[in-house]
Amino acid sequence: MFNFISDTHTTGGNGNMAFRCTICGALITYSDRLILVDGRNRHQFTNPAGIECDFHTFYSCPGAVAVGEPTDEHTWFSGYSWRIALCRECGQHIGWFYEALSRLAPPWSFWGILVSQTIKE
User: Fold this and answer.
1) What is the domain range of residue 61?
2) Whether 88 contacts 63, CB under 8 Å
3) 94-109 residue pLDDT tens
4) How many CA atoms lie within 13 A of 5 on its CB side?
5) Which pTM does this prediction carry?
């Protein structure tokens, strides 16, 4: 179900594309941290309010912070709860942080970062 696109887990971008916050320009993550979820790293879902959400999945986002209590209500990924993800610098909503409900199979967590809330460089 899940596969890393890169087998490196470094702290730097290694020359890969940077994803930055559209509001403050802070670094969110790099393209070498993309992770395949259900065979792809880009997903499109519609939330219960009818808002379309287009996002990439990453195994690491040092520029994001997860807030709130985890919930599995309306989750887009079976077996995972989610929390809101905010830009660590300005607090803009940039996506979600997903955590496995069971520790039996990895990944135990990943980030869903909205395409509309990031600038790629």
Assistant:
1) 2-120
2) yes
3) 999 999 998 776 788 9
4) 19
5) 0.85
